Amino acid sequence: xxxxxSILERLDAGxxxxxxxxxxxxxxxxxxxxxxxxxxxxxxxHPEAVRQLHREFLRAGANVMQTFTFxxxxxxxxxxxxxxxxxxxxxxxxxxxxxxxxxNEGDAxxxxxxxxxxxxxxxxxxxxxxxxxxxxxxxxxxxxxxxxIAEYFEHVEEAVWAVEVLKQTGKPVAACLCVxxxxxxxxxxxxxxxVRLVKAGAQIVGVNCHxxxxxxxxxxxxxxxxxxxxxxxxxxMVQPLAYHTPxxxxxxxxxxxxxxxxxxxxxxxxxxxxxxxxxxxNVGIRFIGGCCGFEPYHIRAVAEELAPERGFLPAASxxxxxWGAGLEMHTKPWVRARARRDYWENLRPASGRPQCxxxxxxxxxxxxxxxxxxxQQTEATTQDQLKQLFDRSKSH
Length: 396
Fold this sequence. Notes:
The protein is α/β, with parallel strands linked by helices. The protein has a single domain, classed as Homocysteine-binding-like domain (TIM Barrel). Helices cover 41% and strands 9% of the residues. The chain has 17 helices and eight strands. An eight-stranded parallel sheet has the order 1-8-7-6-5-4-3-2. Helix 6 (88-103) packs across helix 8 (126-142) and helix 9 (156-166) packs parallel to helix 10.
């Protein structure tokens, strides 16, 4: 089955749009992204790695190829001593070319993405922050992406600024906050956040990153209720973490002591993704994808769960028996006995870590925009600055 039309035409027709997964974490694990700055120079430096990940998500069922431009604003690329051999324009252009190349191999659309900026956290002016978004936007217009996404915003104010810049192109605009049911970092509720984004010009609103799938679905449900109560209309999207986060505070998984190098025990199974996809669909979300931790097999699970609604299975399902059916061919009889849906749906996976707790205590320093600790700098973090942080960490 081939989709036709723009992102809004597809959503207006009631089609399910499946997003891709998490590039930053996936490419960090593969050795192409540095944890800390999390910047996407791999698009220009190692295009083959980015291209291959796009292709795997396409094969898994995604029909949106999002440009690998997360944290590709000039102020982030130059933050805290980060030294790159590519300009922001080069990275953004390379990312657009890779996304378009792979999108054209299937029926996918290309989405150009901007995200929150160090300048906003450092209390720069609205004019300064909008100028940063505009530089990325100029590349997206030049490369003629199909639509635009403002994603990973902790503060609705900055997200509104981003939407106001993006909508100037006349292209469809989606906006995602990285918030949970408690709202943004200044306490604005999900419903009110969504209303502000829709009034700013976003036609698609939702949540990405920071929280697990069910938490994000709940936050988007609150957004939907807020928009409808205000008498407005929008489409809804969700692209959560692939990690369980029941113990997170309002800042999400970055407060967890396991972030970012010890999160693997929290990873959702493919069967968890079936439940997520169904719940998202049931609350009225039609743009369903993933963020950090989402690998192609997670997206395949989303596509398989929603195959009845979409009318087809993804290409990657050729190598995956429905609900473990491929295990019927296993050599061991006790494994063949697991070739059934009720086994996998009801499994409670063990971690194999007898000394570990099931929950953590988030750090929760309570720092957000406007706080002196979040003032950013182009110079590398000094040893004295690190010592102060180490000492403070020990006191928490």
